[in-house]
Amino acid sequence: MGSTATVRPQPDAAGQDPIDKNQIKQALAVLGAGALGGLLFWVLNKWSGTPSFVGWPWYGQILALVFLGGMAALFGVYLLTASNMNVMKTYVFAIVCGIVWQPIINTAIKSYGNANITRQVATVSNQTEQLKNTTDHGNSAEIQSAVKATVPAVTQALTLSDVQDVDKKQAIVESSDKALTALQAAAVKAPDSSIQGIREVGIAASQGNHADVGLHAVNSLREIGIAGAISNRPEVAKASIESLRALSMSGKDQALKNAAATSLKEIESRAKM
After folding, report:
1. CB of 41 within 8 A of CB of 99?
2. Domain range for residue 54?
3. pLDDT digits (tens, 9 = 90+) for 82-106
């Protein structure tokens, strides 16, 4: 007798197996358990005399809590923990997530935000390494392309809103500082795009309340401008002055604006020597 081939679902483009019916049933079971937890939360609040969503009719309160409980269960089981879907305690945990829905949802939102920051920092680091390698071995056009790929990643990281985690904030600052160092080095071969990029990073740092990064950008422009003035490259000094002038007139951080104004005056005095 010939053997019968077993047909297996093909992985998707991300390399993951497609969702099957059993996984859908498990997710619905988790959702239902969480909804039950939300209903129990309403019962406990009713019993204790501390209702949620005051002013809503009782059925509206139940519907809201059932929904929130179900979402909390999905977040708790699939996002916050590595739960075994084949054991009963996972579904008991889902019920508990539905009862304590608020901290679960808040934690899930924070976890997602931190994961987004981690991805963005990794993108900045990867682009910075590519820029460094291109600066060492590439020509002017290649460096300009690498600069244009790096700067948006840095500015996006600097302007991420509501970053509460101290370690994540520090990771953004450190990766941005390394990017600025690479941009300053790239200015030797591709001054126009690098100076423009540093200016954009400085403005983003000011908007994102990263004063140290903004001051680093100002100092990088100052050093590039002075080097241009000393080496008789007036176009480099002029571009640096224009970028520093833009930083001195924009942004929210007064220390950054003052440092930019002082630096551009210093370059102007050197250029006239």
Report:
1. yes
2. 21-99
3. 777 888 889 899 999 888 888 888 8
